[in-house]
Amino acid sequence: MIRRVSSEDELFELPKRGVEAQKIRALLNAYGTKYDFCRFYVSEDYILCEMNGSFVVSEIAENGDIEEFADFFTFSGFSEIFCSEALGKRLGSPLRCNAQIVNLMRFSGETVESEAVEKPRRSTMFTRYSKRRSR
Fold first, then answer.
1. How confident is the model over 92-117, as pLDDT tens digits?
2. Residue 27 φ/ψ, nearest 5 degrees
3. Which of 54, 84, 112, 134 maximizes the CB count within 10 A of its CB?
4. What is the pLDDT of residues 47-90, one digit of tens each?
5. Torsion angle, CA of 15/17/23/24, rounded to 10 degrees?
6. Please, are residues 89 and 66 in contact by the beta-carbon 8 Å criterion?
7. Is 10 in contact with 42 (CB distance < 8 Å)?
8. Model-level pTM?
């Protein structure tokens, strides 16, 4: 069963690595779970983020229930799905859509653990500049 997430704690199974998981983590850090335009979902096999009809999917278990997953997308409607190449091939048939490799990237450096990144305080994020009027 795929259900909507109401708190960040429910996304504890989000993998540490993988471009899909990092995109979901970035959206979670940016918007949290309080806004309706950016929604997060979990199931036994997948973690999803949906923003304006575009989905990002991170797999928890390989070869999960693809039929239920495809039904979810058919019911929800989608404009695009960003996922692994293997999942894209598996979803192509039940959704009757084309899977395309958009960009294949390799990263050879070290990753930064998500817990190591501190959220900056708002007072340090924005600086107000004003011009003084000379008279």
1. 778 877 666 666 566 666 665 656 55
2. -65, -35
3. 84
4. 899 998 899 998 887 777 788 888 888 888 888 888 888 888 88
5. 10
6. no
7. yes
8. 0.70
